[in-house]
Amino acid sequence: MRVIAALLISLITGSALAAQATAVFAGGCFWCTESDFEKLDGVSEAISGYAGGDEADPTYEEVSSGATGHTESVKVIYDPDKISYAQLLDWFWRHLDPTDADGQFVDRGRQYRGAIFFETPEQEKQARTSKAALEKSGRFEKPIVTEITPLKAFYPAEEYHQNYYKRNPLRYKFYRYNSGRDQFLEKHWDDPDHLPGGKKENTEAPMSWRGPEHFNKPDEATLRTRLSPLSFQVTQEDDTEPAFKNTYWDNKQQGIYVDVVSGEPLFSSTDKYKSGTGWPSFTKPITPDAVTTREDSTLWMVRTEVRSSYADSHLGHVFKDGPQPTGERWCMNSAAMRFIAKEDMADAGYGQYLTLFE
């Protein structure tokens, strides 16, 4: 019986292990790269470490000196039945500066260079194909210089670097915001956290809003893992994103804007106008009861704060200097919302609002 049990355990364990695959990427500070990849559905873990050099078992101090040839990297452990290597590549390109060969954002030096370390000929082929596609797209004016190179070895970083974004959320948020990373990504990608052909684990609003009876707001710890640092700061800590450096301030597509936490509909492009403020502005909410308002006396002035009705997310403020017919300017934060294009509304469960565009 013990032999049979051992064989069963072996078969079960072997099957579980067979479902896992690995990929190694370098995108600058491994705290950020680890955090970005662990948002993905199908990724079980991203391990911070070092790759690209010849020195065995390097320390953080040795790598950060720039003398080892290693770069800060992450090993992504994923289920290929849930997410493909091609989708990981797409995600990777959206979360670094591929035109910078000498570091990433505030971190300078080859120890922070971007790289794709392939483990098989098929990974190399897909990596080079994806890089060529990015070059052909013309999204960046400068050449794409990210290295694509064979993986010699991957060395896990010290324990205190693993899951740094979870263990030290305040320090991590401060570092990430001041690094300029997210500002760069938002400038070059309409939605850097959108994965074509794949799905992420709760990093944006639910695909549809089924009503308040089906919505339970997640706790703070869960929201910190589901939302980007900026979206958490805005919706949960009443922060304000930079003007003109946010996703939707100049969005001219037809569609609706929904709460990033709950998916509840908030505003329509039919009521959006160019206010010149650098934030998405509307003349009214999508329905009168879509939002709530309350007095806000912070910043040494009295303003009217706007929050979503059910998720209670901080959205922005409403002012009395807007155009007619309402005379109101509903000045919102892009980070508090997700945009659903008109052509996607029916599939996403918002078909009832298509009458707004008739």
UniProtKB/TrEMBL annotation:
Residues 1-18 form the signal peptide. It is an enzyme of class 1 (oxidoreductase). GO terms for molecular function: L-methionine:thioredoxin-disulfide S-oxidoreductase activity; peptide-methionine (R)-S-oxide reductase activity; peptide-methionine (S)-S-oxide reductase activity. PROSITE patterns: MSRB, PROKAR_LIPOPROTEIN. Its EC number is 1.8.4.11. Keywords: Multifunctional enzyme, Oxidoreductase, Signal. Residues 220-342 form the MsrB domain. Residues 190-203 have a biased composition (Basic and acidic residues). It catalyses: L-methionyl-[protein] + [thioredoxin]-disulfide + H2O = L-methionyl-(R)-S-oxide-[protein] + [thioredoxin]-dithiol; L-methionyl-[protein] + [thioredoxin]-disulfide + H2O = L-methionyl-(S)-S-oxide-[protein] + [thioredoxin]-dithiol; [thioredoxin]-disulfide + L-methionine + H2O = L-methionine (S)-S-oxide + [thioredoxin]-dithiol. It holds the Pfam family PMSR. The active site is at 29. Belongs to the MsrA Met sulfoxide reductase family. HAMAP family: MsrA (MF_01401). This is Peptide methionine sulfoxide reductase MsrA. It comes from Alcanivorax dieselolei (strain DSM 16502 / CGMCC 1.3690 / MCCC 1A00001 / B-5) (Alloalcanivorax dieselolei).
